[in-house]
Design brief:
The structure holds two protein chains of two kinds. By secondary structure, chain A is mainly alpha-helical. Chain A is about 45% helix and about 0% strand. Chain A is built from three helices and no strands. Chain A has helices spanning about 5-30, 40, 70-75. The longest helix of chain A is centred in the first third of the chain and has 28 residues, at about 5-30. Chain B is mainly alpha-helical. Chain B has a domain at about 25-180: Four Helix Bundle (Hemerythrin (Met), subunit A) (Up-down Bundle), CATH 1.20.120. In chain B, about 75% of the residues lie in helices and about 0% in strands. Chain B is built from 19 helices and no strands. Chain B starts with a helix and ends with a helix. The chains are: A mainly alpha, B mainly alpha. At the A-B interface, helix 1, helix 2 and helix 3 of A face helix 1, helix 2, helix 7, helix 8 and helix 9 of B.
C-alpha cells in the first residue's frame, strides 16, 4: 500500500504533466501556423480521388447519376 | 520539460511533398488492407460476443433464475464480460482500424512495416481473449473498467505500444503540412489512452494507493476512457467522414479546432463527479463538477459545427449508410454530453446516483454516440479496403433500424426508469424492495431493446463477412460507394 499523501502527490504530478503537455501542444500548434488560414485547412481532406463537391457514399445499387469513380479505384494498385 | 519540448518538436514533419495527390488514397488504402481488416473482423466478432453477454446479463436482472445453475454464467461475471468485450474487444479494435486508417489517409502515408500492426493486432486479441476468459472463470479484479486479471494486461500493453508507436511514426512522416482536426484528435488520444491505462494499472492494481485514492484514480481512468479515448476517436471520424461524404468542408473549421482544445484542457478533471457524496475532499468533487459543466463549451461548439455542416442535406445523409449512422452518433454526442454535464450537478446527482439512469447514460455515450459513429466509419472503409461493394442494402437497413430502435428503447427505459428509481430511493416512505420491484418493467424493456440490437448486429455480421469472404460473388455488384462501376471490363480498363 502506498500512503495517501504520496499517492496524492503522484496524482497531482501526473495531472500537472498531463495538463502541461496539452498546453505545450497548443503552443506548438500556434507557433507552427496551424491556426492560420482555416478555410484552406478545412479542405485538406479532399483530393483528386475524392474531390470537393462530390458525394462519396451511397447504398449499394443506388448512386448519383453521372458520378464517375476515381481512376485509381478503377485501376487499383496490384500490390 | 525539455524532453517534452524536444519530443513534440520531433513530431514536426521534416519535409512535405509539393503535391500530396501524388500519394493516391487508393494506394494508402491498399497498404492498410490487411491490418485494418484484421482489426475490423476482430471487432465485429467481439461485438457479437459482447451482445450475447449483454443479453444474458440483462435477462438475469428481471428473471434471476435464467441460466443460474452455473457460476460461470452469473450476473456479476456476464455483466463484466460484456463491458470488457465491448470496451477492449469491440471498441478498441475498431478504434485501431478507423483511427489508423484515417490517420494514414490524412498523413498521405502509405503503410510500411504493416506486419508490426498485424502482430500487435494478434497480441491484442489474444490478450483480450485471455482477459475475458479470466473474468468468466472468476479471476476478475474488483475495479470497474479494469476487471481483466493482471496476467492479461502485459499482453495488452505490449500490443498497444506497437500500435501507438506506429501511429506516431505515421504522423511524423506525414506528407501534408497542415494538421487536420481529426489528426489532432487521433494523435492526442494515442497519447492519452496509454497514460490513463498505465497510471490506473499502477496505482490501483500493481502498487495500490491507500484507501479512497484508488476510487479517485479508478473514476479518473474510467471516465477518461470515454472522454479521452472513445470520444476523440469518434469525433475524429465524424470530422473526417461527414464533410468527406457530403463533398463539402466542415461548416467552421475554427470551431472544430476550438472544440478539440477545450476538450483537451477540460475533460481530464471531469471523472471525479462519479464520487459525488463519496468520502473524498469536497473541493476535488467541486473541481470535477466545474470541469463537467465546462464541457458544455466543446459540446456546443461541436454540435453547432456538425449541425450546420449537415443541415440542408437530409436527402444526402439518408442516402448514405455512412452518414445515417454518423449523424445519428453526432446527435447522440450532443445529447449524451449535455445529460452528462447536468448529471454532474449535485442536485441532479442526488437522484441519478446508484440508479439505472447512469447505466442508460453510459450506453448513450458508448453506443448511441461512439458505436454508431464507428458503424458508419466501417461502411465507408470496407469498400475502399476490399475494392468491392457491400453485398446487401437490406442488411444495412436492418442493421441501422435494429441499432437505432434498440438503443432508443434502451435509453428511454433506463433514463425514465432510473429517474423514477432515484426519486423513490430518496423517499423514505417507500420500502427498498418496492423500489427494486418497480424497476422490473424498465429492465424488461432493456432486454427487448437488447434483442433489437442483437438483430442489427447479426445483420451487420452477415453483411461484413459476406463482403469479406464472398469473393467474386460480391464484387462489382454495386454501383455504390465509389460511384458508377458499370462493368468488370470498365473496372479493368
Amino acid at each position: 500500500m502506498v500512503e495517501w499523501s504520496v499517492s496524492l502527490v503522484i496524482i497531482f504530478l501526473l495531472g500537472g504533466l498531463f495538463f502541461a503537455s496539452a498546453v505545450y501542444a497548443l503552443y506548438w500548434a500556434a507557433s507552427h501556423k496551424q491556426f492560420q488560414n482555416f478555410e484552406k485547412g478545412a479542405k485538406t481532406i479532399f483530393t483528386e480521388e475524392e474531390p470537393l463537391g462530390v458525394r462519396t457514399d451511397f447504398f449499394p445499387g443506388k448512386t448519383e447519376k453521372g458520378h464517375i469513380p476515381p481512376s485509381s479505384y478503377r485501376n487499383p494498385p496490384s500490390n | 520539460m525539455s524532453f517534452l519540448t524536444s519530443f513534440i518538436s520531433s513530431l514536426s514533419a521534416s519535409k512535405f511533398v509539393a503535391d500530396p495527390n501524388k500519394v493516391p488514397l487508393s494506394h494508402i488504402d491498399q497498404s492498410m488492407r490487411l491490418p485494418a481488416i484484421l482489426f475490423l473482423a476482430s471487432s465485429v466478432l467481439w461485438l457479437q460476443a459482447g451482445t450475447v453477454f449483454a443479453l444474458m446479463a440483462s435477462i438475469k436482472l428481471h428473471t434471476p433464475e435464467f441460466m443460474a445453475s452455473s457460476e460461470w454464467l452469473t450476473f456479476g461475471r456476464m455483466r463484466v464480460a460484456h463491458l470488457n468485450a465491448m470496451a477492449y474487444g469491440w471498441a478498441n479494435n475498431v478504434i485501431f482500424a478507423v483511427g489508423l486508417w484515417v490517420m494514414a489517409r490524412l498523413c498521405r502515408c502509405s503503410v510500411k512495416h504493416g506486419g508490426v500492426i498485424l502482430i500487435a493486432g494478434i497480441f491484442w486479441n489474444i490478450g483480450v481473449t485471455i482477459g475475458i476468459f479470466g473474468i468468466i472463470k472468476g479471476d476478475m479484479t474488483s475495479v470497474e473498467w479494469l476487471e481483466m486479471p493482471t496476467y492479461a494486461t502485459p499482453l495488452l500493453a505490449f500490443a498497444y505500444a506497437l500500435i501507438g508507436i506506429w501511429g506516431i511514426i505515421c504522423f511524423r512522416y506525414r506528407q501534408v503540412e497542415h494538421v487536420y482536426v481529426s489528426q489532432w484528435y487521433i494523435l492526442a488520444a494515442i497519447f492519452w489512452f496509454p497514460w490513463l491505462y498505465m497510471v490506473a494499472q499502477m496505482m490501483i492494481l500493481w502498487f495500490p494507493a491507500r484507501g479512497t485514492v484508488q476510487a479517485i484514480t479508478n473514476w479518473w481512468f474510467a471516465h477518461n476512457v470515454l472522454g479521452l479515448w472513445f470520444t476523440p476517436m469518434a469525433l475524429a471520424a465524424i470530422y473526417y467522414f461527414l464533410p468527406k461524404v457530403l463533398g463539402r468542408p466542415i461548416h467552421s473549421y475554427y470551431l472544430s479546432v476550438l472544440g478539440f482544445w477545450s476538450l483537451a484542457l477540460f475533460y481530464n478533471w471531469a471523472g471525479v463527479h462519479h464520487l459525488i457524496g463519496g468520502p473524498i475532499p469536497v473541493w476535488l468533487i467541486s473541481a470535477g463538477i466545474v470541469a463537467s459543466v465546462m464541457m458544455v463549451i466543446p459540446v456546443i461548439v461541436t454540435a453547432i459545427n456538425h449541425h450546420l455542416t449537415a443541415v440542408g442535406y437530409p436527402k444526402e445523409v439518408w442516402q448514405s449508410p455512412t452518414l445515417r449512422f454518423i449523424v445519428f452518433g453526432a446527435m447522440s454526442y450532443t445529447l449524451a454530453s449535455m445529460f452528462g454535464s447536468a448529471m454532474a450537478l449535485r442536485s441532479v446527482n442526488e437522484v441519478t446516483h446508484f440508479t439505472h439512469f447512469t447505466v442508460g447514460h453510459a450506453h448513450h455515450g458508448v453506443y448511441a454516440f461512439f458505436t454508431m459513429v464507428m458503424f458508419g466509419s466501417i461502411y465507408f472503409m470496407m469498400p475502399r479496403l476490399l475494392q468491392r461493394e457491400w453485398p446487401s442494402a437490406s442488411l444495412i437497413h436492418i442493421h441501422f433500424w435494429g441499432s437505432a430502435l434498440g438503443i432508443g428503447i434502451m435509453l428511454v427505459g433506463l433514463h425514465v426508469g432510473g429517474w423514477l428509481q432515484g426519486l423513490q430511493m430518496n423517499d423514505p416512505s417507500i420500502d427498498f424492495l418496492d423500489v427494486v420491484t418497480n424497476t422490473i418493467p424498465w429492465l424488461f424493456s432493456r432486454s427487448v431493446s437488447g434483442c433489437l440490437l442483437a438483430i442489427g448486429h447479426l445483420a451487420f455480421f452477415v453483411n461484413f463477412f459476406w463482403m469479406l469472404l464472398g469473393g467474386k460473388a460480391t464484387e462489382f455488384k454495386g454501383p455504390t460507394l465509389l460511384g458508377d462501376m458499370p462493368t468488370k471490363e470498365g473496372m479493368r480498363a
